[in-house]
Amino acid sequence: MDELEDSGDLRLLVKTYLRSLSGVPVNGIVDFYQNVRHRASKSLADGTGRRPHFRLMSFFKLLFMSLCFGLALVSES
User: Fold this and answer.
1) What pLDDT, in 10s, does the model give residues 33-61?
2) Staple 10 to which of 18, 21, 30, 76, CB 3.0 to 4.6 Å?
3) Predicted local confidence at residue 77, as pLDDT
4) Which long-range contacts (CB under 8 A, 24 or more apart) does 11-19 make?
5) What are the E-state strand segments in 11-77?
6) Residue 61: how many CA atoms within 13 Å on its side-chain side?
7) Residue 19 DSSP symbol
8) At a CB cut-off of 8 Å and minimum separation 6, what does 21 contact?
9) What global pTM score does this model have?
């Protein structure tokens, strides 16, 4: 799968994936992901000096965990 970089495409992905949750800060999620990807390619490094890799699969994992956590919070209330 090609990496998505367009903000509109990423927003659509977030809205679609997290549609069962209300009040999702879609723009904030997309901005955070794009900012982390940019910084990872420019200035972020781990303790050994290696740059982290943030790919679309990482984004999907984040969305999945958000969905699971969000649904757990809804079911507890």
Assistant:
1) 898 888 888 888 888 988 887 788 888 88
2) 30
3) 46
4) 13/59, 13/63, 14/63, 17/60, 17/63, 17/64, 17/67, 18/63, 18/66, 18/67, 18/70
5) none
6) 5
7) T
8) 66, 67, 70, 71, 74
9) 0.72
Tokens read off for 45: 């490094």
Tokens of 5: 């970089």
Type of residue at 70? G
Residue pointed to by tokens 């999945």? 64
pLDDT in tens, 11-36: 998 899 888 878 888 898 899 889 88
The answer to whether 11 touches 25, Cβ cutoff 8 Å, is no
